[in-house]
Each structure stands twice: as C-alpha cells, then as structure tokens.
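FIELD: query
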Amino acid sequence: MTPEEQLEIVSSASYYYFYAIETIGVATAFGMFIPRLLIALQTLVYETLAVVFEICLPNFNAQQI
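FIELD: result
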C-alpha cells in the first residue's frame, strides 16, 4: 500500500471523526447527551478500527473467514 493510499484512508476517516466530535458538542448543548454520546463514541471506535485494518492489513478479506 502506497503512502498516498494510506493518506486517502485516513482523510476519509477524519470526516467521521469530525462528525462524532461535533455530535458530542451538539448533544451536550441540547441535553441529549447519553444516546448521542454513545453513537459518537461508536463512530470513533469503528472508524479507528477501519483505518487500522485497512492500513495494517491491506490484504485482509473478511469474506475468507
């Protein structure tokens, strides 16, 4: 995997990071804290795992399991 491909993966995930952080802020301001916080944290975890899997295991294919 080339550095350009790695950068593309990370930059696509950064949108979801921004969305999750923004969601935490909005949820706190409007008192919808717990459900929105859980959704945002879930998004952060999933995107982090997706980036790790795509960069560290570029030949990983879940359908082979």
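FIELD: remark
The mean pLDDT is 71.
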